Amino acid sequence: MDWLADWGRERAAAGLQRELTPRAAGDPAIDLASNDYLGLTRHPAVLDGAIAALRRWGAGSTGSRLVTGTTAEHELLEVELAEFTGAESGLVFASGYAANLAVLTTLAGPDTLIVSDAASHASLVDGCRLARGRVAVVPHADVDAVAALLRDRAEPRALVVTDSVFSADGDLAPLADLHRVVRANRAVLVVDEAHAIGVRGTGGRGLVHETGLAGEPDVVITATLSKALAAQGGVVLAADRVRNHLVNTARSFIFDTGLAPAAVGAARAALRVLRAEPERAGAVLDRAGDLARLAGVAAPPSAVVSVVLGDPERAVAAAAACRAAGVSVGCFRPPSVPPGTSRLRLTARANLTAAELDTIEQVLRTVLVEVPA
Ligand SMILES: Cc1ncc(COP(=O)(O)O)c(C=O)c1O
């Protein structure tokens, strides 16, 4: 496989080589890189939830959800998430990625047009690639382009696919307008709420809920349990008939081992904390505003603060300098973002302290001035 070395050299020449860096336990760096938006991964109640489920059900779920991999805990999580977001029902997957593959491959057939936002998450893109319908990619947040495609289509069925909070820029999809054209054209709106659950909407119920679309029969939500909900896994929140269809046809559900009980228990506990302390959702947006001010960029409507630096080398150097100064930040380069828009990606946490913000201010001030353009 000598060609792998050739491809590796090309990657390195473009500044796109990636390395795995194990995280040290008890790392003292300030975390602005993870998706632990509500600061719950180490919350005692969440750890207890994971441990209790682990002890009761074992380390693994032992099989596919359709065989031995469904526990009472999985079903409770599904009911609780559906109730929280206002959906008729929920179905838990081993990951958000698997949930997106499931929805796109099973709700679309050869007679389906799939219209996807240009900035849709990679897992939605891969779902589009695996689905058997015709895929049309529209410019980011372009509702008119969506409407034109839906109106002019030859296919009897159509899906419109979007993130609600976009993972790289942290901006919001125009969900109300999208739903209006979806409804007018008898299509279905598939919304990935990975970055919106726990952050947007009353008490973190998500942007679909905030937009007044909860429970609409032509809206299908997907989400991950690995960000605000501090665990692992994915979920589809939709009408009962969608759940039933997925259970019977989704290959990423049927041919995948059910989510581990500890993750289910952790997600349930995180949801209980969020319900008891709904102010966490507002706090994460406030802290994102603080981070944006310190980085000299506009306040985002989400937890994601994007500081675009341009070249991948510059973004990598800036991320390394932050790290060396005790602040861990994300670094997004192509293909995660378009060429020329490599960036630092800072994620806010509801429990960032004033002292941490002081340190972040000093570090960002130095790094953003010193790293050469
Ligand atoms: C928007 C979006 N959708 C889906 C996923 C995939 O979720 P998971 O990590 O649970 O597979 C992610 C990232 O993790 C994401 O950012």
From TrEMBL:
Its EC number is 2.3.1.47. Pathway: Cofactor biosynthesis; biotin biosynthesis. Belongs to the class-II pyridoxal-phosphate-dependent aminotransferase family. BioF subfamily. It catalyses: 6-carboxyhexanoyl-[ACP] + L-alanine + H(+) = (8S)-8-amino-7-oxononanoate + holo-[ACP] + CO2. The keyword DNA-binding does not apply. It comes from Skermania pinensis. It is an enzyme of class 2 (transferase). Keywords: Acyltransferase, Biotin biosynthesis, Pyridoxal phosphate, Transferase. This is 8-amino-7-oxononanoate synthase. Its cofactor is pyridoxal 5'-phosphate. Gene3D superfamilies: Aspartate Aminotransferase, domain 1, Type I PLP-dependent aspartate aminotransferase-like (Major domain). Homodimer. Residues 29-360 form the Aminotransferase class I/classII large domain. The keyword Cell membrane does not apply.
